[in-house]
Amino acid sequence: MARTRVEAQPATGTTLVVLVGLGVSFLLLMALLSMAKSENLWDETYLLFGALIFYSAAAVLYLGFGVTGLSSYVRFASLATWAGLVANTGAVARRWYEAGHPPFASVYEMLLSFVWTLAVLTLVAEKRYGVKVIGTVTMPVAIVGVVLMQLLRTEVHPLVPALQSTWLHVHVTLAMLAYAACALSFALAMMFLIQDKMQTETFLAATSLFGMAIYVAVLTRFEKWGALSVVAWNPQEKSEAFLAKGVRLFVVIPDLGWMMLVVLAAVSAPFFFYLVWRRTADDGFLSLANRAEFVSILLQVLALVFFLLRVRDGRYRSLDADGLFSTNLAASPFLLSGLVGGIFASLLYLLLLWRRHDLERMLPPAEELDRITYRTIAIAFPLLTLMIAAGAYWANRTWGSYWSWDPKETWAAITWLVYAGYLHTRITRGWRGRRAAYFAIFGFGVVMFTFFGVTYLLPGLHAYA
Question: Please, what sign has the CA dihedral across residues 355, 361, 363, 369?
Answer without folding.
Answer: positive
